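Worked example 3. Consider a protein that binds zinc ion.
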Amino acid sequence: MIRSVKAGMLLALLLMAGCGVTLSEEQMALHENFERTYEPAQIGNLEALPNVEVIDGVTYVDGILIVNKEISLPPDYAPGLQPEVVAAYQQMFQDGAARGLDFVLVSDFRSYDYQAQLYSNYVARDGQEAADQYSAKPGHSEHQTGLAIDVGSADSATTLKVSFGDTPEFQWMKDVAHEYGFIIRYLEGKEDITGYMYEPWHLRYVGEEAEAIYESGLTLEEYLGID
Ligand SMILES: [Zn+2]
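Given these inputs, the predicted complex is written out as structure tokens:
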């Protein structure tokens, strides 16, 4: 994907250069060669360019709603937990139960105001620098999208802890969550990209694209080409 984004950008630059600007012979040759060589892939490459849309203050990249440390949601955005997410996690929990696994839903939708309260409590307790590692500023929480959940196991000692990653629930979930439309949003070793510590419990619903994201091993930002 990253490679095709670059090819798409080159194409876009060449096309821009073609708009009313005189090209040198060398550029012309490159342009023609590029078109001749890559013509069949042009549409695909153009589609691979990150398409960023902001609708009523909500940002979508290639149709996927995105919230992170830089991109926020409006305070009044309060969709509640989305029905497709409810169906997906219930099915996953049920399939897990059939394997003797015991999942619990720890948290789901959070409003802007509730996140504001949580964040200020964490800052008061641990200081802002520490709080920013594990908590989002209001408007920046994925939980406000109605597309994110935190899951836990019957072993409540691991709730919202990295040790959840050692539970049988996580060991099964990490390789099947995408089949239900979820990705593990804050991956281990990707803290510098996501801005968050590893959170094995935090799932983000993306639907059908979850499989491709899982297979890529990339964070959502990298996958969408906005890292
Ligand atoms: Zn979470």
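Take a moment to read the result before moving on. Residues 143, 148, 150, 202 surround zinc ion (CB under 6 Å). The longest helix spans residues 2-17.
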